[in-house]
Design goal:
Layout: E1 2-4, E2 10-12, E3 16-17, H1 25-37, E4 41-43, H2 51-61, E5 69-74, H3 81-92, E6 97-102, H4 113-121, E7 125-131, H5 135-144, E8 151-155, H6 163-171, E9 175-179, H7 191-200, H8 204-214, E10 218-220, H9 226-233, H10 242-249
Parallel strand pairs: 3-4, 4-5, 5-6, 6-7, 7-8, 8-9, 9-10
Antiparallel strand pairs: 1-2
The protein binds adenosine-2'-5'-diphosphate.
Adenosine-2'-5'-diphosphate binds near residues 180, 223, 224, 225 and 231.
Length: about 270
Protein backbone atom coordinates (compact mmCIF):
# COMPACT_ATOMS: atom_id res chain seq x y z
CA UNK A 1 0.00 0.00 0.00
CA UNK A 2 1.29 3.43 -0.97
CA UNK A 3 0.52 7.00 0.06
CA UNK A 4 0.65 9.93 -2.31
CA UNK A 5 3.22 12.65 -1.66
CA UNK A 6 2.82 16.30 -2.62
CA UNK A 7 5.73 16.04 -5.09
CA UNK A 8 3.73 13.51 -7.12
CA UNK A 9 5.56 10.34 -6.05
CA UNK A 10 4.23 7.58 -3.81
CA UNK A 11 5.65 6.39 -0.52
CA UNK A 12 4.98 2.93 0.91
CA UNK A 13 2.83 2.84 4.04
CA UNK A 14 5.29 0.52 5.81
CA UNK A 15 9.06 0.57 5.59
CA UNK A 16 12.15 -0.58 7.44
CA UNK A 17 13.92 1.92 9.67
CA UNK A 18 17.59 1.24 10.35
CA UNK A 19 18.27 3.62 13.23
CA UNK A 20 20.67 1.91 15.66
CA UNK A 21 21.35 -0.94 13.26
CA UNK A 22 25.08 -1.62 13.09
CA UNK A 23 26.89 -0.78 9.89
CA UNK A 24 28.10 -3.84 7.99
CA UNK A 25 26.61 -7.32 8.16
CA UNK A 26 23.78 -6.41 10.54
CA UNK A 27 22.43 -3.65 8.30
CA UNK A 28 22.97 -5.68 5.14
CA UNK A 29 21.07 -8.64 6.61
CA UNK A 30 18.18 -6.51 7.85
CA UNK A 31 17.76 -4.66 4.55
CA UNK A 32 18.04 -7.89 2.54
CA UNK A 33 15.45 -9.59 4.76
CA UNK A 34 13.11 -6.63 4.41
CA UNK A 35 13.36 -6.48 0.63
CA UNK A 36 12.78 -10.22 0.48
CA UNK A 37 9.71 -9.87 2.70
CA UNK A 38 8.25 -7.29 0.32
CA UNK A 39 9.31 -3.99 1.89
CA UNK A 40 10.03 -1.32 -0.70
CA UNK A 41 10.84 1.57 1.66
CA UNK A 42 14.17 1.76 3.48
CA UNK A 43 14.83 4.66 5.83
CA UNK A 44 18.38 5.55 6.78
CA UNK A 45 20.30 8.73 7.68
CA UNK A 46 23.73 10.23 7.36
CA UNK A 47 23.81 10.17 11.16
CA UNK A 48 23.16 6.41 11.40
CA UNK A 49 26.51 5.61 9.81
CA UNK A 50 25.10 2.69 7.82
CA UNK A 51 24.29 4.18 4.40
CA UNK A 52 26.99 2.18 2.61
CA UNK A 53 25.56 -1.10 3.92
CA UNK A 54 22.02 -0.05 3.00
CA UNK A 55 23.17 0.72 -0.54
CA UNK A 56 25.05 -2.55 -0.83
CA UNK A 57 22.05 -4.63 0.25
CA UNK A 58 19.78 -2.76 -2.17
CA UNK A 59 22.14 -3.36 -5.09
CA UNK A 60 22.67 -7.01 -4.18
CA UNK A 61 18.92 -7.63 -3.94
CA UNK A 62 18.65 -7.39 -7.71
CA UNK A 63 15.45 -5.37 -7.28
CA UNK A 64 15.42 -2.44 -9.71
CA UNK A 65 16.32 0.80 -7.97
CA UNK A 66 13.14 2.40 -9.34
CA UNK A 67 11.02 -0.05 -7.34
CA UNK A 68 12.61 0.94 -4.02
CA UNK A 69 11.83 4.09 -2.05
CA UNK A 70 15.04 5.23 -0.37
CA UNK A 71 15.15 7.89 2.33
CA UNK A 72 18.17 9.45 3.98
CA UNK A 73 18.58 12.53 6.16
CA UNK A 74 20.72 15.65 6.37
CA UNK A 75 22.58 16.02 9.64
CA UNK A 76 21.90 19.66 10.56
CA UNK A 77 25.20 20.00 12.41
CA UNK A 78 26.66 20.24 8.90
CA UNK A 79 26.54 23.41 6.79
CA UNK A 80 25.12 22.52 3.43
CA UNK A 81 22.41 19.99 2.54
CA UNK A 82 23.53 19.90 -1.10
CA UNK A 83 27.10 18.92 -0.23
CA UNK A 84 25.89 16.33 2.29
CA UNK A 85 23.32 14.87 -0.13
CA UNK A 86 26.08 14.31 -2.68
CA UNK A 87 28.11 12.48 -0.02
CA UNK A 88 25.11 10.36 1.00
CA UNK A 89 24.53 9.38 -2.63
CA UNK A 90 28.16 8.38 -2.89
CA UNK A 91 27.93 6.19 0.23
CA UNK A 92 24.62 4.70 -0.87
CA UNK A 93 26.00 4.01 -4.34
CA UNK A 94 22.95 5.38 -6.10
CA UNK A 95 22.29 8.45 -8.20
CA UNK A 96 19.10 9.71 -6.59
CA UNK A 97 17.13 9.63 -3.36
CA UNK A 98 13.38 9.31 -3.13
CA UNK A 99 13.29 11.43 0.01
CA UNK A 100 15.82 13.67 1.76
CA UNK A 101 14.86 14.95 5.21
CA UNK A 102 16.33 17.53 7.58
CA UNK A 103 16.97 15.22 10.52
CA UNK A 104 15.89 17.72 13.19
CA UNK A 105 15.40 21.49 13.36
CA UNK A 106 18.79 22.31 14.84
CA UNK A 107 19.54 26.01 14.37
CA UNK A 108 15.89 26.68 13.54
CA UNK A 109 13.40 25.25 11.07
CA UNK A 110 14.20 27.31 7.95
CA UNK A 111 17.94 27.91 7.39
CA UNK A 112 18.63 24.60 5.63
CA UNK A 113 15.57 24.67 3.38
CA UNK A 114 17.11 26.60 0.44
CA UNK A 115 19.81 23.91 0.31
CA UNK A 116 17.13 21.21 0.41
CA UNK A 117 15.33 22.90 -2.47
CA UNK A 118 18.61 22.91 -4.40
CA UNK A 119 18.87 19.15 -3.78
CA UNK A 120 15.41 18.77 -5.27
CA UNK A 121 16.00 21.10 -8.22
CA UNK A 122 19.20 19.27 -9.16
CA UNK A 123 17.39 15.92 -9.11
CA UNK A 124 19.48 14.52 -6.25
CA UNK A 125 16.22 13.69 -4.48
CA UNK A 126 12.69 13.40 -5.77
CA UNK A 127 11.18 14.53 -2.50
CA UNK A 128 12.35 16.74 0.35
CA UNK A 129 10.98 16.99 3.85
CA UNK A 130 11.70 17.27 7.53
CA UNK A 131 11.88 15.23 10.70
CA UNK A 132 11.17 16.09 14.33
CA UNK A 133 9.37 19.32 13.38
CA UNK A 134 6.55 20.66 15.58
CA UNK A 135 3.40 22.26 14.13
CA UNK A 136 4.89 25.72 14.83
CA UNK A 137 8.09 24.78 13.00
CA UNK A 138 6.11 23.44 10.04
CA UNK A 139 4.24 26.74 9.90
CA UNK A 140 7.48 28.76 9.94
CA UNK A 141 8.89 26.59 7.19
CA UNK A 142 5.76 26.94 5.05
CA UNK A 143 6.20 30.71 5.10
CA UNK A 144 9.59 30.57 3.39
CA UNK A 145 9.44 27.44 1.24
CA UNK A 146 8.96 27.41 -2.51
CA UNK A 147 8.83 23.62 -2.53
CA UNK A 148 6.70 22.41 0.40
CA UNK A 149 7.95 19.69 2.74
CA UNK A 150 6.49 16.37 1.54
CA UNK A 151 7.01 14.50 4.83
CA UNK A 152 7.44 15.17 8.55
CA UNK A 153 8.92 12.12 10.26
CA UNK A 154 8.27 12.07 14.00
CA UNK A 155 8.14 9.82 17.05
CA UNK A 156 4.58 8.55 16.81
CA UNK A 157 2.53 5.68 18.18
CA UNK A 158 -0.72 5.27 20.14
CA UNK A 159 1.31 6.26 23.23
CA UNK A 160 2.60 9.36 21.43
CA UNK A 161 -0.55 10.14 19.49
CA UNK A 162 0.32 13.71 18.46
CA UNK A 163 -3.12 14.35 17.11
CA UNK A 164 -2.67 18.11 16.65
CA UNK A 165 0.68 17.60 14.91
CA UNK A 166 -0.89 15.03 12.58
CA UNK A 167 -3.72 17.49 11.83
CA UNK A 168 -1.20 20.25 11.12
CA UNK A 169 0.67 17.94 8.76
CA UNK A 170 -2.53 16.99 6.94
CA UNK A 171 -3.45 20.65 6.60
CA UNK A 172 0.00 21.39 5.19
CA UNK A 173 -0.52 18.60 2.64
CA UNK A 174 2.32 16.45 3.90
CA UNK A 175 2.53 12.83 4.99
CA UNK A 176 3.40 12.28 8.63
CA UNK A 177 5.75 9.35 9.08
CA UNK A 178 6.06 7.42 12.33
CA UNK A 179 9.47 6.40 13.60
CA UNK A 180 9.76 4.16 16.65
CA UNK A 181 6.12 3.03 16.19
CA UNK A 182 6.80 0.30 18.77
CA UNK A 183 8.18 2.82 21.28
CA UNK A 184 11.64 1.35 20.58
CA UNK A 185 10.12 -1.95 21.69
CA UNK A 186 8.73 -0.68 25.00
CA UNK A 187 5.07 -0.74 23.92
CA UNK A 188 5.15 -4.40 22.89
CA UNK A 189 4.55 -5.56 26.43
CA UNK A 190 1.68 -3.17 27.14
CA UNK A 191 -1.33 -5.20 28.38
CA UNK A 192 -3.90 -3.22 26.37
CA UNK A 193 -1.97 -3.72 23.14
CA UNK A 194 -1.47 -7.36 24.11
CA UNK A 195 -5.18 -7.96 24.63
CA UNK A 196 -6.10 -6.47 21.23
CA UNK A 197 -3.36 -8.50 19.58
CA UNK A 198 -4.62 -11.68 21.21
CA UNK A 199 -8.21 -11.03 20.17
CA UNK A 200 -7.11 -10.58 16.56
CA UNK A 201 -4.59 -13.41 16.55
CA UNK A 202 -1.86 -10.90 15.69
CA UNK A 203 1.38 -9.76 17.30
CA UNK A 204 1.51 -6.57 19.42
CA UNK A 205 3.90 -5.09 16.84
CA UNK A 206 1.41 -5.72 14.04
CA UNK A 207 -1.34 -4.00 16.05
CA UNK A 208 0.83 -0.90 16.63
CA UNK A 209 1.97 -0.73 13.00
CA UNK A 210 -1.55 -1.28 11.68
CA UNK A 211 -2.85 1.53 13.93
CA UNK A 212 -0.43 3.95 12.27
CA UNK A 213 -1.38 2.77 8.80
CA UNK A 214 -5.07 3.29 9.59
CA UNK A 215 -4.27 6.84 10.77
CA UNK A 216 -2.87 7.57 7.31
CA UNK A 217 0.77 7.53 8.33
CA UNK A 218 3.77 5.91 6.76
CA UNK A 219 5.25 3.69 9.49
CA UNK A 220 8.88 2.56 9.76
CA UNK A 221 9.45 -0.08 12.46
CA UNK A 222 13.03 -1.14 13.10
CA UNK A 223 14.14 -4.73 13.48
CA UNK A 224 17.29 -6.70 12.78
CA UNK A 225 15.54 -10.04 13.06
CA UNK A 226 14.35 -11.53 9.72
CA UNK A 227 11.32 -13.22 11.24
CA UNK A 228 10.19 -10.06 13.03
CA UNK A 229 10.93 -7.99 9.92
CA UNK A 230 8.64 -10.26 7.93
CA UNK A 231 5.85 -10.24 10.53
CA UNK A 232 5.97 -6.46 10.92
CA UNK A 233 5.13 -6.13 7.23
CA UNK A 234 2.12 -8.49 7.39
CA UNK A 235 -0.37 -5.79 8.33
CA UNK A 236 -2.39 -5.48 5.15
CA UNK A 237 -4.68 -8.47 5.62
CA UNK A 238 -6.50 -7.38 8.76
CA UNK A 239 -8.14 -4.29 10.18
CA UNK A 240 -8.57 -2.73 13.62
CA UNK A 241 -12.23 -1.95 14.18
CA UNK A 242 -13.39 1.40 15.57
CA UNK A 243 -13.49 0.09 19.14
CA UNK A 244 -9.90 -1.19 18.96
CA UNK A 245 -8.72 2.08 17.40
CA UNK A 246 -10.46 4.09 20.15
CA UNK A 247 -8.89 1.90 22.84
CA UNK A 248 -5.45 2.41 21.31
CA UNK A 249 -6.04 6.18 20.87
CA UNK A 250 -6.70 6.41 24.61
CA UNK A 251 -3.15 5.22 25.37
CA UNK A 252 -1.78 8.62 24.38
CA UNK A 253 0.37 10.30 27.01
CA UNK A 254 1.15 13.49 25.06
CA UNK A 255 -2.25 15.16 25.31
CA UNK A 256 -2.50 15.13 21.51
CA UNK A 257 0.35 17.61 21.29
CA UNK A 258 1.56 19.79 18.41
CA UNK A 259 5.12 19.08 19.57
CA UNK A 260 7.30 16.57 17.75
CA UNK A 261 9.20 15.32 20.70
CA UNK A 262 9.27 15.66 24.50
CA UNK A 263 12.97 15.22 24.51
CA UNK A 264 14.51 17.82 22.21
CA UNK A 265 18.15 16.92 22.10
CA UNK A 266 18.99 19.50 19.43
P1 LIG B 1 15.00 -6.33 17.10
O1 LIG B 1 15.73 -5.39 16.18
O2 LIG B 1 15.89 -7.24 17.86
O3 LIG B 1 13.85 -7.04 16.40
P2 LIG B 1 10.89 0.80 17.11
O4 LIG B 1 10.60 0.46 15.70
O5 LIG B 1 9.72 1.36 17.85
O6 LIG B 1 12.09 1.70 17.27
O7 LIG B 1 11.22 -0.56 17.88
C1 LIG B 1 12.40 -1.28 17.60
C2 LIG B 1 12.66 -2.27 18.72
O8 LIG B 1 11.59 -3.24 18.76
C3 LIG B 1 13.91 -3.06 18.49
O9 LIG B 1 14.52 -3.25 19.74
C4 LIG B 1 13.45 -4.36 17.88
O10 LIG B 1 14.32 -5.41 18.24
C5 LIG B 1 12.11 -4.55 18.52
N1 LIG B 1 11.13 -5.22 17.63
C6 LIG B 1 10.83 -4.88 16.37
N2 LIG B 1 9.86 -5.66 15.88
C7 LIG B 1 9.55 -6.53 16.85
C8 LIG B 1 8.62 -7.59 16.96
N3 LIG B 1 7.82 -7.92 15.95
N4 LIG B 1 8.58 -8.28 18.13
C9 LIG B 1 9.39 -7.97 19.16
N5 LIG B 1 10.29 -6.97 19.12
C10 LIG B 1 10.37 -6.25 17.99
Amino acid sequence: MNLKLSNGTEIPAVGLGVWQVEDGAQTERAVSAALEAGYRLIDTAQGYGNEASVGKAIRESGIPRAEIFLTTKFLPAEDDPFVEAEKSLERLGTDYLDLYLIHWPQGGPTWAWPGMEKVSAAGLSKGIGVSNFSAAELAELAKVSEIPAAVNQVYFSPFAYRRALLDAGNEAGLITQAYSPLGTGEHLTDPVVGRIAEELGRTPAQVLIRWGVQKGLSVIPKSVNPERIQKNFAVFDFELDDAAVATLDALDTTGGTTESNENKWW
